[in-house]
Structure of Uridine phosphorylase 1-like isoform X1:
Amino acid sequence: MSLLLEDEEIDEYRDGSVRLRNPNIELMDQDILYHLALGSGSHDLVEMFGDIKFVCMGGTPKRMEQFANYIMAEIGHKLPAGTTLLDISQYSYRYSMYKVGPVLCVSHGMGIPSVGILLHEIIKLMYHAKVKDPVFFRIGTCGGIGVEGGTVVITEEAVDDMLNPYYEQHVLGQKVHRPTTLDRQLVRELKALVYSDDPYDTILGKTMCTSDFYEGQGRLDGAFCEFSEAEKNEYLAKLQEAGVVNIEMECTAFAALTHHAGIKAGVVCVALLDRFKGDQVCAPKEVLNEWQMRPQELVSRYIKRYLQRKGRLRTTDSHGSMCVKSPRRFKLVQQESENYE
């Protein structure tokens, strides 16, 4: 049996509040966000995160620390004297999270399971912090389909490896399909921020999400490969004909879960190679580092434009310092996060 969850508008969420769609949360004494080392009973989440407007996610802790420093310089954010950027989730040992004024920068790991866990807890974090109308971005890397390395791709539609525009999850023995809807207006606004003198191409297209890096993406260089190079290229040509311009491993879960929560979201990635030309990334490290900055630059332009319009550039405020409500519960959350598997 398969359950397809249709798009819907609910009046009670039109004030910009984040949708949890879980009545059990309100009945809990406290909600421990195990993988972020935070809790609704141990931390003052409104004080810590209530001013968040943008949540930017990327695969690795290092990349998101780099983005946190980059966006801090771009928006002119100043840390309070004597402070440095703090990894708020350092005691989780799973994800890293940095707060730069209204921007939250967090690593999501690799693949749908990792980004799915993070999204559940980040969405709950936005709910507990009473954040209104947040915008989520996934900033990452991908393989291009007929797209040269260094090209930036703004995802118009996220599809799975069967080209379905939904995210399939098994819940209580049933297949649940959630639409992978991304905000079309956000896509248009991002494309409008592409500069004519950018030394690289920025394109729109479908992004295919897989649950595997090797066989699931038609690679010839995994431990197992039971297809020929000709069959691989025939498959890539089929994807290209369907409008797919890149492949990655998180976009369907990212798009579906943010949409289900009523959150505006976008995906911006840079291609590290054209999969028609090979499977292994051969560009020099310094070139790859420059390429990986390109999605960050585009998302930064969007954030800067918004903050300029709101008069919120060049501020000195919270940098994610801990606001503990209960020292006992704070210690408990740390212990639970360290031990939780």
